Give the backbone structure.
Amino acid sequence: MSIIIKSDREIAAMRQAGKIVAAVLEVLKLDLRPGMKTKELDIITDQELEKLGVKASFKGYRGFPASLCVSVNDEIVHGIPGERLLNEGDIVSLDLGAICNGFHGDAAVTVAVGEISPQARKLVQTAEGALKAGIAAAFCGARLGDVSAAIQYYVESRGFSVVREYTGHGIGREMHEEPQVPNFGRLGEGLKLKKGMTLALEPMVNAGSWRTRLGSDHWVVLTADGSLSAHFEHTVLITDGEPEVLTVA
Ligand code: MG
């Protein structure tokens, strides 16, 4: 397994990519409203990325047809934007990657469409909190399992489950680099985190069982039991101090 330690120049490019991803996600959050088609969000994404002169990471990746992944309610990740209308009460995960000077930034947020149920709100808050808990554990010298376990504990202690078949990942010149970063694990296990590693942490949290199924388009991943799912992601740099979140505006 080869873990790539980034140079200062590479980190600068990733900071720039991360800033752009965060800025575009902010625009999408403000624009999102009931009655909108999910493909409208993808169109806005392309317009914003074009203004900034950068390319989307996902478009064309293994044939993925859009720049933004839009996953609604029981869809966990990799939803293809299309004709689906967003309704009041839906939760929508927006996952975006962008490439700057050859380096990727990758982030996701789950957004409420209008008023959502208390259960949905708790789920979204838990997924966001799990990401924070994972980041808080991503210290130089800690083990990867410490990050995974922090996420898993945060989620399961609130009565929800973490998806197992899909994980966070190293990121840099490639969108998916070593190592995989599972959202479940054991304290003290796995590789030791080192300064200069860049990881995309991305808890995917289900209200029901952790089991998943693949949708008929062979892209979208859904909860097997039809329960709601929420997803948050940041690209994070391991430093010799506090972990640095790169996907911030
Ligand atoms: Mg990712």
About this structure: The pocket of magnesium ion is lined by residues 106, 169, 200, 202, 233 (CB under 6 Å). The mean pLDDT is 97. The CA atoms of residues 29 and 111 lie 7 Å apart.
